[in-house]
Design brief:
Number of strands: 5
Helix content: 25-40%
Distance between the termini: 38 Å
Strand content: 15-25%
Number of helices: 6
Mean pLDDT: 94
Radius of gyration: 15 Å
Length: about 170
């Protein structure tokens, strides 16, 4: 039986995220929607991740985004679940609900359905929030991945989220 069922590139990046955050003494949290726990699974695939991983929240429905991460219904109604405003609120909520120093949120349209003209399949939004960071300084980005199928979009989104968890991650 293989040591992991996850794609090798995901596991290798998660290994780097775990090692570098442990070295930096940082705890991390993840709030996931379209990736459905894939980022959390990749991190926890690595032995010793408990030293740097505080929490993973899979908040797939808008109700749970609101109930668990305190994303405002007004923000969800005004901007939609796939928006910088919602991703930023998810990241802030994950930071508050965990013991993390940094949190990353992912929300998007993995497909094959659910896309629109403004937010086609492959649209994914990321946000990073840091403990003690200026809440007015929003660190977020909207990306459009090629529609390489649901699995391809989710994998690309998970890889981007892991990159944002590196201590030296560039601001999107």
């Amino acid at each position: 039986m293989p040591d992991t069922i996850l794609p090798p590139e995901l596991v290798e990046l998660a290994r780097r995220v775990v090692a570098e955050n442990k070295r930096a003494g940082r705890m991390v949290a993840v709030a996931e929607s379209c990736t459905g726990g894939l980022v959390s699974a990749a991190i926890t695939e690595i032995a010793g991740s408990s030293e740097m991983f505080s929490a993973g929240f899979v908040t797939y429905s808008n109700e749970i985004k609101s109930d668990v991460l305190n994303v405002s219904h007004d923000v969800l109604d005004t901007f939609g679940a796939v928006s910088i405003a919602v991703a930023w609120s998810m990241a802030q909520g994950a930071l508050v609900r965990s013991h993390a120093d940094v949190a990353v949120a992912i929300t998007g349209v993995a497909g094959p359905g659910g896309g629109s003209d403004k937010k086609p399949v492959g649209t994914v939004v990321f946000a990073r929030a840091e403990k003690g960071g200026n809440p007015d300084k929003i660190i977020a980005d909207m990306r459009h991945f090629d529609d390489s199928g649901r699995g391809g979009v989710r994998l690309q989104a998970a890889l981007c989220a892991l990159e944002l968890l590196l201590p030296d991650a560039p601001t999107p």
